[in-house]
Amino acid sequence: MVSFQPSEDQQLIRDTVASFAQEQIRPAAHEADETGAIPSALIQQGWGLGLVQSVIPEAHGGAGEPISAISGALVAEELAWGDLAIALHLLAPRLLLYPIILAGTPEQQQRILPAFGANQFRAATAAVMEPRFGFDLAQLSTTAQRSDGSFTLSGAKCFVPIGGSAEQVLVYARTSDGVASGFLVDKGAAGIVRIEREQNMGIKALETTEMDFDKCTVPAANQLACDFPALMNRSRVGLAALAVGVARAAFEYARDYAKDRKAFGVAIAQKQAIAFMLAEMAIEIDATRLLAWEAAWKIDRGEDATREAVLAKHYAASMVMKVTDNAVQVLGGHGYIREHPVELWARNGRGIATFEGLVMI
Ligand SMILES: Cc1cc2nc3c(=O)[nH]c(=O)nc-3n(C[C@H](O)[C@H](O)[C@H](O)COP(=O)(O)OP(=O)(O)OC[C@H]3O[C@@H](n4cnc5c(N)ncnc54)[C@H](O)[C@@H]3O)c2cc1C
Question: Is 356 part of the annotated catalytic residue set?
């Protein structure tokens, strides 16, 4: 039997994050987009909610909450409803923390987890994407050559969230047997030859970077022998949920605007051209959420969710573009100017189709 009833804990975390998004994130989003920077006090406040570190096992000083893809989807949607760039910044440390908890050796967990238990936001991230034509998650170009007690990484990565400020990056690379593994690389490691902030169309408040590795040597103990495809499924579900959050924000704004805006004496929401558009947006958002939740549900049951996660991410990428573009259209000329947030959501939502591999690959 499938149930859509969140548990008490999930409802509580959803309500908490929704309030935080409404009261703190949304009011900061426009300015953060303008300046390309997120106030550190806001990041600190988000960290204080425990959205990342609550899953650290009790043995390592954490609350030991289970890692749940469904809870993750609920949190991602609410944060992205506030702002996608701020959501991605707040969640970036999960990209390193979760794989360590799920697949790290006891030594790695002992070494890495305690730093995440501190009160300060712990900047950490993962480097997955590569700046090359036809990038495919199944065929990473970045290589890790083993020699004696170490691995040497060579290759280029892009769209690394908070890549410049991260204390540690989990770099995914292909070993000589052709399998993708994660490698823990510390900030400032020799062999990181370039870190450059990217200039993006959207999510401008989030620092994303290109990173080049040239014979970057890490101890063999830094290899994370993880199930890379399964981790990518978690990531796909997260991205789909983030897309739902952005699209829901745009839909709600456009719906309220349409009820208020009068043309020829009636609210434009009364005109079928607008009413049909809004109905279509609502349907698409709910449909995508269900795809994401189904994939998350399978992940939490320990099943292979590749098909469901790929469908959810693929559909979400198209959906968020369509819904945010429709929101701009509902506002008419006013949708195109920066006074209203729909243009920001349209630019931000466009990124979902790019993250972690283009939607058509
Ligand atoms: C910053 C800015 C600069 C501009 N500069 C110029 C300019 O230089 N020259 C110029 O000519 N104009 C200019 N415009 C006006 C622009 O052409 C209008 O914005 C445009 O005509 C749409 O009008 P609106 O923004 O009031 O949208 P609205 O009329 O409020 O329309 C909003 C939505 O409702 C729909 N809608 C409206 N009425 C109906 C209806 N009866 N039935 C079904 N659907 C309906 C529209 O298709 C749209 O999707 C400017 C607007 C802005 C915001």
Answer: yes
